[in-house]
Amino acid sequence: MTLDDPHTTLPDHQLLRLAPRDERAFEALVTRHAPAVHRLAAVTVGPGAADDVVQEVFVALHRSVKTFRGDAQLSTWLHRVTLNACYRALKTRKTVPLEDAPEPAAPHDPVQAGEQSDLRERLRRALDTLPPEQREAVTLREIAGLEYAQIAELTGVELGTVKSRINRGRAALREWLTRAGVRP
């Protein structure tokens, strides 16, 4: 698909109508939404498992494209499907012995890459300490970049509840990260 392809400018609802019979329309949806799905998956299950989650999400979209009712925005639906796929992946995750883990590719700046990796790991551990509802709300807001109203729609709770979960989650994360020696 090229940038001059007319599919790239169509809104999601039109692409969804075209997708059952037009492969390029479905491709446009994947191209548009894959980065956000991957970001959310990478934070939730880790970068190594994120690709599998992304694939599962877009297979689910492909299966559902004919019957998608549009009760919610496609991006909202994709976030819910992504989170569900992540939760399934976490339940079935097997740990790999360190000696069987593949060697990482040599980063350009080993010091910076190590610091970033350490910070991501601390953030993941901090997120794991939150109650599931707070972790989901904070992840959807801070990682996926959703607005409060979108999170409320996605999770099926009131807007005030979303704000409260995010506020409490942020406070708990700040406290945990401060204790872990991470400074803003």
From TrEMBL:
UniProt cross-references to InterPro entries, sorted A to Z: RNA_pol_sigma-70-like, RNA_pol_sigma-70_dom, RNA_pol_sigma70_r2, RNA_pol_sigma70_r4_t2, RNA_pol_sigma_r2, RNA_pol_sigma_r3/r4-like, WH-like_DNA-bd_sf
SUPFAM superfamilies, A to Z: Sigma2 domain of RNA polymerase sigma factors, Sigma3 and sigma4 domains of RNA polymerase sigma factors
Region (Disordered): 98-118
Keyword terms, alphabetized: DNA-binding, Sigma factor, Transcription, Transcription regulation
Domain RNA polymerase sigma factor 70 region 4 type as annotated: residue spans: 120-173
Origin: domain of life: Bacteria
Segments forming domain RNA polymerase sigma-70 region: 29-94
Entry annotated with the keyword ATP-binding: no
Keyword Transmembrane helix (UniProt): no
Family per record: Belongs to the sigma-70 factor family. ECF subfamily.
Protein name according to UniProt: RNA polymerase sigma factor SigM
Organism: Deinococcus metalli
